[in-house]
Fold:
Amino acid sequence: MAFTLGSLLEAILLCINAIAVLQDFSPSLQPNGKPVPRFLAKMGWAKNEQDSFTTDSTSVKSKMIHFTSAVRTLLRVPLIAINAVTIVYLILLG
Structure:
C-alpha cells in the first residue's frame, strides 16, 4: 500500500470521525434521571457550560476540550456527507 494523498485524506477523515463519536454524557434511560458520564467526563475532559468563560483558556487541556466540542458541533452533518462520498469512492475505485 503506497502512501498517497488519498490515504492521507482517509487517515484525516478517520481521526475526525474518532473525535466526533466521543461523548461527554449519555442520556439516562430512566425518566428524569441524571445523564450517565461517558468517556470524556470520566477522563475530566467534559465541557462545562458554566466554566467556559471563567477557566484558563490558554491551557492545552482547555483548548482540546473546546476543539472536540467544536468538531462534534460543527462537523456532524458534513461528516455524514463526506463519509458517504468516501464509502462510494472506495467501493467503486477500491
